[in-house]
């Protein structure tokens, strides 16, 4: 099992435009699409670029178009949202 690599603009980082998200509908821009380039350029080179990017200001402002979540994470988030809505509804009834 591997750690999950964070979404990032891999094409920009690798200097490769594999697919424009605006032209390739539902393209999550996964790191897997760039394995060949990572292997070609060397894993150490990619690691350095990746760590540098994580420390950059660009990283702080970057919002990926897709977010990986497990079914369990999604279920937990939905339950939390339902509890909040129920709590808010009770408070609204009390404050009438």
Descriptive report:
The protein has 96 residues and is mainly α. The protein contains 5 helices and no strands. It has helices at residues 10-14, 35-41, 43-55, 57-61, 71-94. The longest helix has 24 residues, at 71-94. The chain is elongated and about 65 Å long.
Beta-sheet strand percentage?
A: under 5%
Mean pLDDT: 77
Strands, count: 0
Number of domains: 2
Please state the overall shape, judged from the principal axes of the Cα atoms. Answer: elongated
| H and E order | HHHHH
Number of helices: 5
The main β sheet shows up as: none
Rg over CA atoms, rounded to whole Å, is: 19 Å
Instruction: Classify the secondary structure makeup into a structural class.
Output: mainly alpha
Summarize the structure.
By secondary structure, this protein is mainly alpha-helical.
